[in-house]
Amino acid sequence: MSQISITLLRLGFLILLWALVLSAIGVLRSDLYGTRVTSRGKGMNRRKTDARADKMATPSRAATGVRTGGMSPRESTAAHLAVTAGPLKGTTIPLGSAPVMIGRAATCTVVIEDDYCSSRHCRVYPDGGQWMVEDLGSTNGTFLSNQRVDDPVPFHVGDKLSLGATAIELRS
Questions:
Q1: What is the pLDDT of residues 124-160, one digit of tens each?
Q2: How far apart are CA 103 and CA 126, in angstroms?
Q3: Is the dihedral of CA 27, 39, 165, 101 positive or negative?
Q4: Is 45:137 a contact under the CB 8 Å cutoff?
Q5: Looking at the DSSP assignment, which residues form a beta bridge with residue 110?
Q6: Which residues, at least 6 apart from 166, have a Cβ–Cβ distance to it below 8 Å?
Q7: Torsion over CA of 117, 90, 110 and 51, rounded to 10 degrees?
Q8: For residues 108 and 101, what is the distance between their CA atoms, to the nearest angstrom?
Q9: Which tens digit of pLDDT belongs to each residue from 113-126?
Protein backbone atom coordinates (compact mmCIF):
# COMPACT_ATOMS: atom_id res chain seq x y z
CA MET A 1 0.00 0.00 0.00
CA SER A 2 1.17 3.47 -0.74
CA GLN A 3 1.82 6.07 1.92
CA ILE A 4 -1.13 8.24 0.77
CA SER A 5 -3.65 5.38 1.09
CA ILE A 6 -2.43 4.57 4.63
CA THR A 7 -2.74 8.27 5.59
CA LEU A 8 -6.29 8.43 4.16
CA LEU A 9 -7.24 5.24 6.02
CA ARG A 10 -5.91 6.68 9.30
CA LEU A 11 -7.80 9.92 8.68
CA GLY A 12 -11.01 7.98 7.99
CA PHE A 13 -10.68 6.05 11.26
CA LEU A 14 -9.99 9.29 13.13
CA ILE A 15 -13.16 10.89 11.70
CA LEU A 16 -15.17 7.77 12.60
CA LEU A 17 -13.79 7.85 16.16
CA TRP A 18 -14.71 11.53 16.61
CA ALA A 19 -18.24 10.88 15.26
CA LEU A 20 -18.66 8.13 17.86
CA VAL A 21 -17.35 10.37 20.68
CA LEU A 22 -19.63 13.28 19.69
CA SER A 23 -22.71 11.06 19.44
CA ALA A 24 -21.94 9.62 22.91
CA ILE A 25 -21.64 13.17 24.29
CA GLY A 26 -25.00 14.06 22.70
CA VAL A 27 -26.70 11.10 24.38
CA LEU A 28 -25.16 11.96 27.74
CA ARG A 29 -26.19 15.60 27.35
CA SER A 30 -29.83 14.69 26.64
CA ASP A 31 -29.87 12.35 29.66
CA LEU A 32 -28.40 14.99 31.97
CA TYR A 33 -30.27 18.07 30.80
CA GLY A 34 -33.48 16.50 29.52
CA THR A 35 -35.38 17.51 26.44
CA ARG A 36 -36.62 20.93 25.41
CA VAL A 37 -40.29 21.49 26.12
CA THR A 38 -41.98 23.26 23.27
CA SER A 39 -45.18 25.25 23.57
CA ARG A 40 -48.08 23.54 21.84
CA GLY A 41 -50.92 25.91 22.54
CA LYS A 42 -51.71 29.55 22.89
CA GLY A 43 -51.97 29.73 26.67
CA MET A 44 -55.42 30.74 27.89
CA ASN A 45 -57.15 29.97 24.58
CA ARG A 46 -56.06 26.36 24.83
CA ARG A 47 -57.30 26.05 28.42
CA LYS A 48 -60.70 27.41 27.41
CA THR A 49 -60.87 24.97 24.50
CA ASP A 50 -59.93 22.06 26.80
CA ALA A 51 -62.61 23.13 29.30
CA ARG A 52 -65.22 23.26 26.53
CA ALA A 53 -64.08 19.83 25.26
CA ASP A 54 -64.47 18.40 28.77
CA LYS A 55 -68.02 19.79 29.02
CA MET A 56 -69.02 18.47 25.60
CA ALA A 57 -67.32 15.07 25.99
CA THR A 58 -69.08 11.71 25.75
CA PRO A 59 -70.48 11.46 29.31
CA SER A 60 -73.46 13.59 28.25
CA ARG A 61 -74.14 11.13 25.42
CA ALA A 62 -73.80 8.18 27.77
CA ALA A 63 -76.20 9.80 30.24
CA THR A 64 -78.85 10.14 27.52
CA GLY A 65 -78.41 6.51 26.48
CA VAL A 66 -76.97 7.26 23.04
CA ARG A 67 -74.38 4.70 21.98
CA THR A 68 -71.64 5.65 19.56
CA GLY A 69 -69.66 3.41 17.24
CA GLY A 70 -70.67 0.12 18.86
CA MET A 71 -68.95 0.99 22.14
CA SER A 72 -70.24 -0.45 25.38
CA PRO A 73 -71.47 2.09 27.95
CA ARG A 74 -68.29 1.57 30.00
CA GLU A 75 -65.92 2.52 27.16
CA SER A 76 -68.13 5.29 25.75
CA THR A 77 -67.79 7.29 28.98
CA ALA A 78 -63.99 7.65 28.68
CA ALA A 79 -63.39 11.36 28.26
CA HIS A 80 -59.88 12.08 29.52
CA LEU A 81 -56.68 10.81 31.09
CA ALA A 82 -55.87 12.17 34.55
CA VAL A 83 -52.33 12.16 35.96
CA THR A 84 -52.69 11.06 39.60
CA ALA A 85 -49.01 10.84 40.61
CA GLY A 86 -45.67 12.14 39.37
CA PRO A 87 -44.33 15.44 38.07
CA LEU A 88 -47.56 16.27 36.15
CA LYS A 89 -49.98 15.39 38.98
CA GLY A 90 -53.34 17.09 38.46
CA THR A 91 -53.01 17.32 34.67
CA THR A 92 -55.89 16.09 32.52
CA ILE A 93 -55.62 15.19 28.86
CA PRO A 94 -58.88 15.19 26.86
CA LEU A 95 -59.31 12.15 24.62
CA GLY A 96 -60.35 12.36 21.00
CA SER A 97 -59.90 10.00 18.09
CA ALA A 98 -56.10 10.42 17.89
CA PRO A 99 -53.65 8.29 19.85
CA VAL A 100 -51.94 9.79 22.90
CA MET A 101 -48.16 9.31 22.99
CA ILE A 102 -46.55 9.36 26.44
CA GLY A 103 -42.80 9.80 27.07
CA ARG A 104 -39.90 12.21 27.53
CA ALA A 105 -39.58 13.27 23.89
CA ALA A 106 -40.84 16.73 22.97
CA THR A 107 -42.88 15.15 20.14
CA CYS A 108 -45.06 13.18 22.59
CA THR A 109 -48.57 14.31 23.49
CA VAL A 110 -47.77 13.97 27.21
CA VAL A 111 -44.16 14.96 27.98
CA ILE A 112 -42.98 13.49 31.28
CA GLU A 113 -39.64 14.58 32.76
CA ASP A 114 -38.84 11.37 34.63
CA ASP A 115 -35.58 9.40 34.54
CA TYR A 116 -37.55 6.12 34.55
CA CYS A 117 -39.63 7.09 31.53
CA SER A 118 -38.35 6.38 28.00
CA SER A 119 -38.40 8.98 25.25
CA ARG A 120 -41.35 7.19 23.58
CA HIS A 121 -42.66 5.11 26.48
CA CYS A 122 -46.19 4.06 25.56
CA ARG A 123 -49.28 5.08 23.67
CA VAL A 124 -53.00 5.06 24.44
CA TYR A 125 -55.18 4.70 21.36
CA PRO A 126 -58.79 3.91 20.38
CA ASP A 127 -59.36 0.55 18.73
CA GLY A 128 -62.70 -1.02 17.92
CA GLY A 129 -64.71 1.07 20.36
CA GLN A 130 -62.36 0.79 23.33
CA TRP A 131 -59.11 2.35 24.50
CA MET A 132 -55.92 0.30 24.30
CA VAL A 133 -52.47 0.70 25.92
CA GLU A 134 -49.30 -0.35 24.12
CA ASP A 135 -45.76 -0.29 25.50
CA LEU A 136 -43.35 1.03 22.85
CA GLY A 137 -40.29 -0.92 23.97
CA SER A 138 -39.63 1.12 27.09
CA THR A 139 -36.66 0.23 29.29
CA ASN A 140 -38.49 0.13 32.64
CA GLY A 141 -41.84 -1.12 31.39
CA THR A 142 -45.43 0.04 31.46
CA PHE A 143 -47.84 -1.35 34.06
CA LEU A 144 -51.64 -1.39 33.83
CA SER A 145 -53.26 -2.12 37.21
CA ASN A 146 -49.92 -3.60 38.44
CA GLN A 147 -49.65 -5.97 35.45
CA ARG A 148 -46.80 -5.45 32.98
CA VAL A 149 -47.96 -4.48 29.49
CA ASP A 150 -46.14 -6.47 26.80
CA ASP A 151 -48.80 -6.50 24.08
CA PRO A 152 -51.60 -3.99 23.47
CA VAL A 153 -54.24 -4.44 26.21
CA PRO A 154 -57.66 -2.82 26.84
CA PHE A 155 -57.63 0.28 29.04
CA HIS A 156 -60.94 0.65 30.93
CA VAL A 157 -62.34 3.54 32.96
CA GLY A 158 -60.77 3.46 36.43
CA ASP A 159 -57.66 1.49 35.42
CA LYS A 160 -54.31 2.96 36.51
CA LEU A 161 -51.39 3.14 34.10
CA SER A 162 -47.97 3.33 35.80
CA LEU A 163 -44.74 4.38 34.11
CA GLY A 164 -41.84 5.42 36.30
CA ALA A 165 -43.06 7.71 39.09
CA THR A 166 -46.12 8.71 37.06
CA ALA A 167 -49.60 7.19 37.40
CA ILE A 168 -52.32 7.92 34.85
CA GLU A 169 -55.99 6.99 35.20
CA LEU A 170 -58.65 6.73 32.48
CA ARG A 171 -61.67 8.74 33.64
CA SER A 172 -65.06 9.66 32.34
A1: 888 888 888 988 888 888 898 888 988 889 888 888 9
A2: 18
A3: negative
A4: no
A5: 102
A6: 83, 85, 86, 87, 88, 112, 114, 117
A7: 170
A8: 5
A9: 888 888 888 988 88
